[in-house]
Amino acid sequence: VHNCDSRADMGVLPHALVLPYPAQGHVIPLMELSHCLVDHGFRITFVNTEFNHDRVVAALQIDGTMEQINLVSVPDGLDQEEDRNDLGRLTEGLMKTMPLCLEELIRKSSEAGDRITCMIVDESIAWALEIAKKMGLRPAAFWPASAQLLATLLSIPELTSKGVIDADGAATRQEMFQLGPGMPPMNTAHFVWNCIGDRRTQCTVFNCILDNNRAIEISEFVICNSFKEIEEPVFASAPRILPVGPLLTGLRPRRPAGHFWPEDTTCMSWLDEQPLSSVIYASFGSFTIFDRRQFQELALGLEATGRPFLWVVRPDLTTASGDAYPPGFEARVAGRGRMVAWSPQHRVLAHPSVGCFLSHCGWNSTMEGISNGVLFLCWPYFADQFLNQSFICDVWKVGLRLMPDESGIVKQERIKSKVEELLGDEEMRSKALLLKDTAHRNISRGGSSSQNLQAFVDAMKTSTK
Ligand code: UDP
């Protein structure tokens, strides 16, 4: 992992304000990046929304140093009981409330003799870069998903002029669209702004993307959690997007990790007892929700595989109330199946017992999976997960799709047969191991991502020299 310690050539200690979009899949990679920056001599002020700050602090099991990462919070503009998964409302709340609070935070830091020198903003709220400009901080943007997705967002004017989408972002017709040669085609109905919430939410998110596209011009750097070889055509056509991934500091027990739920680490000793490459790890990130019927079918499918499995059952994974498991399920799978509310996923995927990853294909999960050479069974839920599935199955060829039947349900028999097909595919396994090597080469000394990170660090430090 990035371990180039450049504290020696530092002038004044550089101090970065790091601002993630308030969702789990954004907070974790920005926290990973923060740990990398600490290794490079930075101090970090990490800004969560108050709502998420409380969760991150509650989930902390403090067993490491935190002194270089200061966790602070600002309001998100929503009432306490409002639904933070309503991304339209959340986006509006943030745009209304955050700017003044951030300005005050930066000002107070200066008054206290603890000047913030640069601002690293999640591209999903790139409009906040205006604050960096106003307050005289070096501005940079971080993108926590595929470079192709960002390139797609940036090409919205072109999509509109070609008539692929209308002025509000709605697809004029459902078709497969290819952004450029060598890039996996995307279903226009799956453009990220078209598959988030209701039409009102989609319009809000679309307009926010347009604001971000304007604001990103201010940014001196646009870095992303990807690496050259997995998206080569995109990096060739959009050289401004600089890959610094995979960000994998979570393999080391570092705190804070930025999790919204406490990690149940007891599954690690359970994994130690399982045979090599035998375990199905099933995890669907922080947003996915299953209705009762699909949840039960998934449980029965895992049982039907006859293999050991580790299944992350978040407290809000299903809409079913009360005991959601099929009758007798827990007793039947006892010992062979393990359910946890939240896992230490980086460490789980790096464990030699894990054989495959039944995943919703969130970008972080995708990067974590390929960096550990696991095979994927893909079950996308929303947003960019369909595109990530195309990368996994069609471009890198390290996974299979798990498709629902005509009734829209993924049935237990299909889960069982796809697991068998996947685990029997030796060619796919060798591809996955090659990809793992490539990922690790990128972040070792002299690797492409490592060099990009160094260039970014050097530039972000200069104002303090
Ligand atoms: N994660 C985790 N434990 C779990 C499930 C998920 O630590 O039990 C982490 C996972 O490692 C990843 C993040 O949560 O870093 C989820 O991000 P992703 O982009 O995969 O999905 P999202 O939650 O955004 O849908």
TrEMBL record:
GO molecular function: quercetin 3-O-glucosyltransferase activity; quercetin 7-O-glucosyltransferase activity
Keywords: Transferase
Keyword field contains Ribosomal protein: no
Database matches in SUPFAM superfamilies: UDP-Glycosyltransferase/glycogen phosphorylase
Family: Belongs to the UDP-glycosyltransferase family.
Superkingdom field: Eukaryota
UniProt source species: Musa troglodytarum (fe'i banana)
Keyword Transcription (UniProt): no
Protein name per the record: UDP-glycosyltransferase 83A1
UniProt-listed Pfam families: UDPGT (PF00201)
